[in-house]
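Objective 1.3, modelling of assemblies. Example input:
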Amino acid sequence: MSQVHNFSAGPCILPQEVLEKASEAVTNFNDLDLSLLEISHRSVDFVAVMDKAISLVKELLEVPDGYSVIFLQGGASTQFTMVPYNLLSDNGVGVYVNTGTWASKAIKEAGILGKVEVLASSEDKNFTYIPKGYSIPADADYLHITSNNTIFGTQLKEFPECPVNLVCDMSSDIFSRKINVSDFDLIYAGAQKNMGPAGATMVIVKDEILGKVERAIPSMLDYRIHIKKESMYNTPPVFAVYVSMLTLEWLKSQGGVEAIQKVNEAKATLIYEEIDRNPLFKGIVAEEDRSTMNATFILEDESLESDFNQVLADARINGLKGHRSVGGYRASMYNALPIESVQALVDVMNAFAQQHS
Amino acid sequence: MSQVHNFSAGPCILPQEVLEKASEAVTNFNDLDLSLLEISHRSVDFVAVMDKAISLVKELLEVPDGYSVIFLQGGASTQFTMVPYNLLSDNGVGVYVNTGTWASKAIKEAGILGKVEVLASSEDKNFTYIPKGYSIPADADYLHITSNNTIFGTQLKEFPECPVNLVCDMSSDIFSRKINVSDFDLIYAGAQKNMGPAGATMVIVKDEILGKVERAIPSMLDYRIHIKKESMYNTPPVFAVYVSMLTLEWLKSQGGVEAIQKVNEAKATLIYEEIDRNPLFKGIVAEEDRSTMNATFILEDESLESDFNQVLADARINGLKGHRSVGGYRASMYNALPIESVQALVDVMNAFAQQHS
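Predicted structure (tokens):
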């Protein structure tokens, strides 16, 4: 049977060799005759996994001294609360750029804990572009941005020069392109795109920004506690951390972030050129803000949708349905998606256009 | 090679057939030619898993109407915060019974959010017994208890008659014995003992106790939001929920909670009879409070420890080391541990005594 082309938006495709190793570890981990799932998280074998996962993050992103890397639970949604809990002072303000559904949720959650200001928003055009040219108040506690908007298919190509702590939700494009960690003060990402399966969240934080707020912080929401306990304050999500470690090992074997960035750019060029060339399809976001991770597009003639869905199914192209708040189609092209899958999609789009010309 | 006898305290032994199915799902789930890890959590296939996991909890514990069952992340440690966030009013008090390390942490976290009172504690004797005979103030917002104390090896045999909301941390003995859910208002449990792997937390809550506090609650900490969104407010810990579902299916196939309770009682009788009979060993907690899940004991003569550790290793008996705060040994005998493993341990203890008599 031919391969499934998996364009799921997340949880999403993972490298086949990662899945095979993960599958084996579920029945026999490290030749212990025990499953990874049934050993203590404080065993030598699992502590080595956690250490390796953290050191791979540091190596692949060239994390400078003075930053800590931790693995947590609760997804980016929990980070929406942890960020203000740890960084928003009683009389301070957290400033946000609203670029989509997730940014909106981050703003809402911060507002529960303190004062929030939205500096710029693209909500006026259903988040189809990235706002630019806003000025950042120098007395804000932090600026929060979202590097890639999975649902709408927009991506920040340049990060703002920021006079205050810069916090970035990189859930859907971390490890997809080179970044300078030193440009940021806190980066967080749910694992379930380029890093691993659902159930783990990775945070990179500059140590010196912590401990400056007055409020008492519940232990599970306190970055300092997780840093001090090396992501073992409580039982970590063992399997999700292990699969993340395997995925980062795979990324390293592919040549690291710079190498995968070239592949990601080639995949994006391939799909966007087809969208622009093909008379039946149309991209839905501003060209300069197009995401390399999630390409969103629609059929100009909606009545063709059920036909197109059928040819996608025939070609075993999976996960292309757009998010319900946008409609149309979304091709998510995370690190593990081979360019051959993008080519398969382009071929189908092309053939579909010829059939309907 | 002979079987490993896995007495780990958690993460801990899971049924072999569960591990085999879980392993297969990591490479090919439901014959989709896709991994469970790389499909959308909103796909028909995964939604069916979540629904099944929840319905199995309801069936196995005979959860009455008016209660909701949800799967979350963050372990019991996050529940230590969620309970007061949702139940402790501005002028109210949460009352606690302190029976060990985890109860102590629950007390500390509640104190961050409001007023807390410790009704009774066994800290005076290093938590080697369960306090009894305390009276519960009728104006408290809730009473919080811990049904089984994994580290010390004590267990509540009877639950208090409670005039206020009764909250119980059942992380280490849920599904091990019959309970009447209607005696409780909120039950929570990290999955990684009798229910599944690390990374998921299950909560059973009486709907009518929610929404009574004044404070604004971050969405990820608000039970009502997770109930309304059927445990899909954000991306759930897909794999941990799936393995929990498989483990609950296995429990059902074994005859359910009443049947496993009989096995658990037989296993506990076997080990405690040996501890009491064997001149080299001594139990460390009050007899009437001995846990059926975690049997703690020490060698009367500590100088024999390295010899005993060697015979344990030779017999492939794993995870018997006591928690660092207690020392000695701890035999954790969760649902999936076969009685043959307990017999193997008893045989080793017996042979060791004969050798040293």
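The first helix of chain B runs from residue 16 to 27.
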